Amino acid sequence: MSRIVRFLSALVLSLAFASGASAQSAADQVALKRAAARGEQIYAYDQAAWVTTDVMLKKLPDPGKAGIRGWVILPKGEGLTAIYYGEEDGKPFAVFSGDVRGRKVVASKAFGPDDDRALSPEAIALVTAPRAIALTDQRACTRGPFNRVTLPPERPGGPTLVYLLSPQVEANIYPFGGHFLFEIGPDGKSSSVRGFTRSCLNMSAVDQGSRSVAGLFITHLLDQTPTEIHVWLSLWTGKTVYVGTTAPQRVWSVNGAKITLIKTGP
Questions:
Q1: Domain that holds residue 188
Q2: How many whole angstroms separate alpha carbon 95 and alpha carbon 117?
Q3: Total domain count for the chain?
Q4: What global pTM score does this model have?
């Protein structure tokens, strides 16, 4: 049975039983709220890097010559700011910054030697956190290096969240596996790592006739509710992602950051 047929069968069955969906537990509600918030944040931070890169390249066509070694994203007011940094004697300094609202760069600056190029402690923590990652069993599910999204701690003294995400390398083909979360403690050491799938699954957003599909269906065995990765994937693909979970058996609709339980039971 093709993936599209499996999806349509699951969707029809889910909608048929939508009225029988049971209430979620308090633990479910907490997990869903966190998944929605983090998934939106991953997407926003990733998009901020994309849109500011375009502006940065117009002002600094040779990033290597300008000394850029990487970038970090930080909250700023109601939006985000991307800081592209260099390093001297192991100390990072600002080379370029771009302020983002939605998906639009509203201000940008290339830093010269006479500017204050010092990074805030928060920015330095984001620069250094990924250095604690040691890849062991983590492999991308597509060709090329991981995309990385680093999120600041959710609370004072909390861990910095570093997501390694398998990149898209083919048009309309999205990796649903090969995504990992590393939590880096305030001491700069990795305290935990988790994967969001047990195997690779690269899914097409079009059918065999190159027509856009209405949604995508995946079975998820590692959690009782959808995760931030499902929210991010829905935002990234622009599709509703239907997630089947077990213990108990349920089917969820993930439409952007809106997660709805649409079926419970076998």
A1: 3-264
A2: 7
A3: 1
A4: 0.88
What is the Cα 73 distance to its own chain's centre?
13
pLDDT, one tens digit per residue, over 154-184 is 999 999 999 999 999 999 999 999 999 999 9
Among 1, 5, 37, which residue's Cα sits nearest to residue 217? 5
Closest CA to 264 of 38, 33, 28, 34: 28
**Residue in 96, 105, 116, 178 with CA at minimum distance from that of residue 143:** 178
Side chain identity at residue 73, one-letter code? I
